[in-house]
Design goal:
The protein has helices spanning about 10-25, 30-40, 50-64. By secondary structure, it is an all-alpha fold. The radius of gyration is 11 Å and the shape is globular.
């Protein structure tokens, strides 16, 4: 997936993304969050900026 470093991704984007991970990997929300942190963010929460990471955390919390 290509993501522009200047783009701010919203919560709805991450909810969809995390649900897709949960379905495809047959795992729970915590597993999906961990997987996304390692693959999407490459283990770096600041990779796409604070705004994007905050939206990611909100999306992850809404799925728990």
């Amino acid at each position: 997936m290509t993501v522009n470093h200047g783009g701010n991704l919203n919560e709805a984007y991450f909810i969809s993304y995390l649900k897709l991970i949960m379905i495809s990997r047959e795992c729970n929300a915590a597993c999906a969050e961990s997987f996304a942190l390692e693959t999407f963010f490459s283990g770096d929460a600041t990779k796409f900026g604070q705004y994007t990471f905050e939206r990611f955390k909100r999306a992850a919390a809404s799925l728990e």
